[in-house]
Write a structure and sequence with these properties.
alpha+beta, 10-stranded antiparallel sheet, 4-stranded antiparallel sheet, about 35% helix
Amino acid sequence: MPDFAGGCIMIRGLIGVCAVLLAFQPAMAMADHELSAKFVCRFIDDQTVGVVRLDLDRLDVAAALTWLAEIGLLNQADITEPKHMAGTLVNGLKLAGVHDTYLVFNLVDVANGPLVVFPVTEKTKVEAIAAVCDLIPLEAHAQLNGAVVAGRRSTVERAKRLKNHERPELLPAFTAAGDSAVQALLIPTDGVKKGIELLIPNLPREIGGGPTTRLTSGFVWGAIGVDLPPKPAARITVQALDAQHAVDLGALWGETLGKFVELDFVKRTIPARQELLPSLKPKIQSNQLRLTIDTSTPGIERFLKALAVRAKDAAAEQRTRDNLRQLGLAMHNSASEKTAAFPEPAIVDGQGRALLSWRVAVLPYLGQEELFKQFRLNEPWDSEHNRRLINRMPEVFSSSLIDPQSGLTTYLAVVGPGYILDPKLPVKLSSVTDGLSSTVLLVDVVPEHAVPWTKPQDWAPDQEDPFKKLVRPGQAEFTVLMADGTPRRLSTADGLERFRALLTRAGGEIIKE
C-alpha cells in the first residue's frame, strides 16, 4: 500500500523542485521526446508521480548562477564553490559519455529521494559514472536496463525489480516541456489521485477550498520546460481531462493565486505581487492550460529586483542572527568559567578607567585566543599598539552592511544601571530576575552608529525613545539577542513600554507575548 501522506509531500516537493530548477539552462537542439518517453518507461511503475530530465549539453549551471548574482538574488562570493562543484559534476558526466540524466520520483521511495538514471551507450564509461556517484555522494549504484541507476540502497534495489511500464502520458508531457535543458513532469496515476482524495478530502481554504476532486478529477499531467540564461524562461502546461475540466482548473488556479498573494507571509516576502498576478494566469487552449514566464513578462523585472533586495535583506538578517548567537554563547561560556556573571562592559585599569571592550574579553571563547594575547590589556583601545589590531576584527563582529576592513561593529551590549551589563558591578545570571528569555543582551544598531569593535562603547537606551539607533529609515523591525542566547526580531509596533520592559534585568514588569 503506498504511503499517500508521503506521496502528497513528494508531489509538493516535486513542484518545489520544478520551481528551483529555474536555476538551470542555455543553447537549443531538438530533444527526441519519443526516445525519452520510451527510455523512462524502464524505470517507472504506477506509483511514479514525477520525472525530471536534465539535458547536460544545455545545462550551463555557471551561467545560471552568474545571472542570479547579476540580478542580486545571490552574492558573487557565494557562487564560486557551487559553480566549481556543478562544473565538476556536469563535465565529469559528459566526459563519461552521459548527455542527459533523469530523476524519477516514486511514492514508495518518498523518504529516500529520487532514483537517478544515467543512460548508457557503447561509448559510455560506466566506471567514470560510478566515480561521479561517489562524488555527489549517492549511496548505491548499479547497471541495468541500459543505464546506471543510483540513489539510496533501497531505491536501487527496488529499481532492479522494475519491468517496462507503459505510461502513454509521458510522450505528450515531454513534448509540451519542449526543447529545454530541464523538463519536469508531474504524472500522478488515477490510483494516486484517489489516494490523495481519501487522505485530503478538502482543499485548504487558502488555495480555494472545496473538495479535493476540484483538482484531482480533471488533472491528467503537468509539464514544465525551463530555459536558462541568457534567455531564462519557464513554459508550464497542464493537461486536463477535457475542455470543461480545463476551464474548472483555470478557475481554481485563479482562486488559488488570488488567495495566496493575500496571505500575510506572502505580503511580507513577495514584492510586486499584484503587478505580477495577471501574468501568472494561464491561457486555456482546448483541454490544456498554458503559461510562459520570461523576462518580458509584465511585472517580472520589477518583481525580480524587489525580490533581490528581499533576498539580500534576508541573508543579512540571517548573518546577524548567527553572529549574535555566537556572541551570546561566548558570553555565557565566559560566565560559566569564571564568576557565573556576564562580562563587564569594559576591561578597566586600576583607577577604573575603561580601556578595552567586552568584545576583546570574550575573544578566547570565540576561538580567537591568539588574537587576544596580542592585546595589551593595560593600555586603552586606541593606544599606539592596540589600535593596530582594530583592522583584525573577527568576522563574527562584522555586519553585512559595513565594510569589514573598517573595524567597525554594530553589535553592542545594552549597558547602564538596571540593564544586562552594568558598569558599576558584574551582573550574575541569577540576578536577571525578569528571566534571561525576557531580557535583551545585545542589539544590532544602524550602521551610522557603529563603533570600533575594541572600543569600550555600547548602547545606552534613550529613555524617551529607546528605538533610537536601532531602526533603519522606512523600517519598523530590528534584531536583538536575548540573554538566553536567542535572537529575536522586534518591532516598533510592539510599543515603547513593552520594549522598555524587555531592556531591564530586574524590573518586575509583566510582559505579554
